[in-house]
Amino acid sequence: MTHHAPPPPAAGCRETPVLKQRGQHEVFCGLTGIIWLHRKMQDAFFLVVGSRTCAHLLQSAAGVMIFAEPRFGTAILEETDLAGLADAQAELERDVDRLLARRTDIRQLFLVGSCPSEVIKLDLARAAEKLTARHAPKVRVLNYSGSGIETTFTEGEDACLASMVPALPETDKRQLLLVGALPDVVEDQALDLLGKMGIDDISVLPARHADSGLAVGPNTVFALTQPFLGGTLAALERRGARHLPAPFPFGEEGTTAWLQAVAREFGVDEARFDAVTGAPRARARKAVAKAATTLSGKSVFFFPDSQLEIPLARFLTRECGMEAVEVGAPYIHKSVVGPDLDLLSQGPTIAEGQDVELQLDRCRTARPDLTVCGLGLANPLEAEGLATKWAIELVFTPVHFYEQAGDLAALFSRPLHRRNALKLEAAE
Question: Does the annotation list 29 as a binding residue?
């Protein structure tokens, strides 16, 4: 198949020694994944079993107005629950019964564990099993952990999707499964491209509705759209499904390589592939080139935050002309990001985990043109004269596939434009 991207590097980073960091780290907790998942699954409800702090986090992060009725809530653990003076299990079951009686639109209910519920060893798996027996077949109750004790925020989605896989019906049908929550408009673009190639039997996890007919089996092949879904990958393979490894669909090159992996699996010929992708590829290259004029020749340093870091470093270095100094990721699953590592030229430090003080020292020494990091580090680094990009914005913004390639590049060029504007203002 025709491919206009730069040739792969003579030696990628798949075998580069990884700097293992095991120290203080700064991340959001996995509860924040609910903010995009509750919008995606339109008949699901996410009930966090946690403290008032958990409730305040979700309310403030999601920006829910007082008169809105969102598809998430918090079952507050009071002091009596935490002290073992009340039967938290029985109270939770009563709360769920009241919720389902009031919200008759709910078809899937997720009990989401938090730091407090895990500290007191509340058995949400047993609660989910009992509640499913009580409310089936109308409502299926599942559980997963969104605790931030040892996890980063995107793992909330991974845990959620992985919890759904064992309950999916069995099928022998030959099908493609797209795995990962995408904004509806982006998902529709991907399905449209694949449909024009003649690939029609496609399901999506998570589906927008519980009655979508989603099933999995030994003839299911799946392609990840998000690089933080290692647990979901393992759960699907346990069901007999087969993973299609590919670079992630960020930018023109990544999107083309991702689509090619699917097209090869389903026997799409080269002429048809080029006919379907030619125009959007050209638009993507043009849009990226506009932002790349600002990014080319600049250095970038990634703190570990979302697990998007390796595919984004590949995009910035190969399509935008940037130089990666360090690429840190909370976890590195080579079965997931290996194809992106293959395309990332040797040179940057590849780091897994975090020891925030040591990484800050390396960042200050390198003085990169752009630092991609969490909110807690961005303001201090900006005060030290470093341009920063909030990593969390890359999760909340539509950035996948051809039509969003220019928007993705612009997210990185804007901080540099802002820095230059501030310098000009200070000079006047």
Answer: yes
Question: How many angstroms separate the CA atoms of 418 and 408, rounded?
Answer: 17
Rounded CA separation 152/29 (Å): 6
Other C-beta atoms within 10 Å of 149: how many? Answer: 11
Q: Which fold has domain 175-265?
A: Rossmann fold (3.40.50)
Please state whether beta strands 44-50 and 72-76 pair in parallel, antiparallel, or not at all (unpaired).
parallel
Domain 18-25+284-427: CATH superfamily is Nitrogenase molybdenum iron protein domain (3.40.50.1980)
Distance of alpha carbon 302 from alpha carbon 389, whole angstroms: 10
Domain ranges of the chain: 18-25+284-427, 30-151, 175-265
User: By C-alpha distance, which of 369, 391, 132, 340 is closest to 227?
Assistant: 340
Spatial separation of the C-alpha atoms in residues 163 and 182, rounded to whole Å? 18
User: For the domain with range 30-151, which CATH number is right: 3.30.565.10, 3.40.50.1980, 3.30.2280.10, 3.90.550.10?
Assistant: 3.40.50.1980
Q: ω into residue 218 within 30 of 0, thus cis?
A: no
Distance between CA atoms of residues 160 and 261, nearest Å: 26
- Nearest residue to 227 via CA among 313, 292, 317: 313
Q: What is the CA radius of gyration of the chain?
A: 22
Return the minimum-mean-pLDDT range out of 85-94, 243-252, 279-288.
Answer: 85-94
Q: Is 54 annotated as a binding residue?
A: yes
Is 115 annotated to bind a ligand? Reply is: yes
At 283-304, the pLDDT tens digits run 999 999 999 999 999 999 999 9
* Topology match between the domains 30-151 and 175-265: yes
Q: Output the six-digit token pair for 136.
A: 């089936």
Three-state secondary-structure class, residue 289: helix
pLDDT score recorded for residue 69? 65
Q: Write out the two tokens for 89.
A: 């299990």
